[in-house]
Amino acid sequence: MELIEIFPEIKLIKEKDLQDKTTKVWKRAIELGGWKEEDLFKIPFTLLIPNIKINIIEHTRAVTNCALKIAEVLQLSYKTLSINGDYLIAGGLLHDVGKLLEYERSGEGFRKSKIGVLLRHPVSGANLASEIGLPFEIVHMIYTHSKEGDIYKRTVESIIIHYSDFVNFESLKIMKDV
Ligand SMILES: [Fe+2]
What we know:
Blueprint: H1 3-6, H2 16-33, H3 56-77, H4 85-94, H5 99-102, E1 103-106, E2 109-112, H6 114-118, H7 121-132, H8 136-144, H9 156-177
Helix pairs in contact: 2-4, 2-7, 3-4, 3-9, 4-8, 4-9, 7-8, 8-9
The protein binds fe (ii) ion.
């Protein structure tokens, strides 16, 4: 299955070169992690919520689409606020790509890999994006989307992805708590 079919939001990126590089980062992560495209449908989006059925594709798309809605409202409300739509989509689609290196198979399930113990996914994902030549604005978004970014001054695109990610994560996390 083609990545553009797995993540149709890639087509929403206006700049063709950025579309290609976003696809390349996912392909490289699949290759380095020893996965196949089809495995993405089985890899959970988090190991922190036991038995979660939401996979990394569903999560990545939900975070990206939530971010687009947030950006739409912000831009309608605050005319002077400028948000780069291409960066937002590419950063949303790539924010968790490092999980393909952070996780590995364990029997029927998944666990943290040796790489994952050393480098969390924001770090490995940012490295991959940098290797493929993504703009530093997007490398920044991947690196700062989670707690690693708390010591940084996030860009507006990174702020949106950060909160979009957490609203998705926290909403699903309470399902196990209630
Ligand atoms: Fe995420």
